[in-house]
Amino acid sequence: MATIRKVVVTGGSGRVGTYVLRELMAQFDVTNADLVAGRVDTRYVQADVMNLDSLRQAFKGADAVVHLAAIDFDWKAAPEKYIDVNVRGTWHVLQAAAETGVSKVVLCSSISACGLSEMRPDWRPQSLQVDERHECRPVQAYSVSKLVMEQMGLSFVHGSNMDVICLRPLAVVMPESFAEYVKFVEAPDRNWLFYYVTAADVARGFRAALEVEGLRYGTFFLSADDTSRPEPTLEWYRSRFGELPELNNPRVFKQQPRASIFSSAKARDLLGWTPTSDYLELRKTWL
């Protein structure tokens, strides 16, 4: 595979996109393709994922595309809007990339692809830690859109010479919105799995996905190693949800009692990515 030099980032003007652009600029020739210019001082081209021709223009001469542009779950959009923009927009990105000779696309999927973020009583972790082999069973439109985009990415791997890597960040935290996250997770009787990852670590994950060679396709959770609870993970899980599911590797929770519900071992092994955060330290320094 040719060395990647020129990278186009769709949605680089967004919250996470800002971190990704800054991380990639040190290594690559980066262009931000978005509806509006962002805060990062890099090359900008106006593009809309719902406009295929604008993407064809934006991707000319690019070696790789990082696709971040989407309607986020936090926007509380209508179900059909998630499907229209996130699914059709991703197809447009993949199609335009293949047509213009892009060699690699890195898609921003989500933890939501597996459906566990929906916190449905009928769909809980089937084993701990949850990794990429875990069954995906989403029902909400946003979650379904993320799973569909992963499958579309695989279809382009099968049908072209383009490599596609799908990253599944968990709840992304950053200093400017951390107080809001803490308020959410510390609400009394919160029914959740208390996962997170920092925006800076997510950005490094996208860089790692661009740099890795010889990997045609893959899906990867990007998770912090710990949870956003102070007590041991298996204790709060049992108190909230009852019986524990099967433990894939009990040693993980012995070595790190506050270990995340989600494993990033695959990203560690294949991408060389390692999270750097400690939630209890973040809480001290960011609040």
TrEMBL record:
<keyword id="KW-0560">Oxidoreductase</keyword>
<dbReference type="Pfam" id="PF01370">
    <property type="entry name" value="Epimerase"/>
</dbReference>
<protein>
    <submittedName>
        <fullName>NAD-dependent dehydratase</fullName>
    </submittedName>
</protein>
<dbReference type="InterPro" id="IPR036291">
    <property type="entry name" value="NAD(P)-bd_dom_sf"/>
</dbReference>
<comment type="similarity">
    <text>Belongs to the NAD(P)-dependent epimerase/dehydratase family. Dihydroflavonol-4-reductase subfamily.</text>
</comment>
<dbReference type="GO" id="GO:0016616">
    <property type="term" value="F:oxidoreductase activity, acting on the CH-OH group of donors, NAD or NADP as acceptor"/>
</dbReference>
<feature type="domain" description="NAD-dependent epimerase/dehydratase">
    <location>
        <begin position="7"/>
        <end position="176"/>
    </location>
</feature>
<dbReference type="InterPro" id="IPR050425">
    <property type="entry name" value="NAD(P)_dehydrat-like"/>
</dbReference>
<dbReference type="InterPro" id="IPR001509">
    <property type="entry name" value="Epimerase_deHydtase"/>
</dbReference>
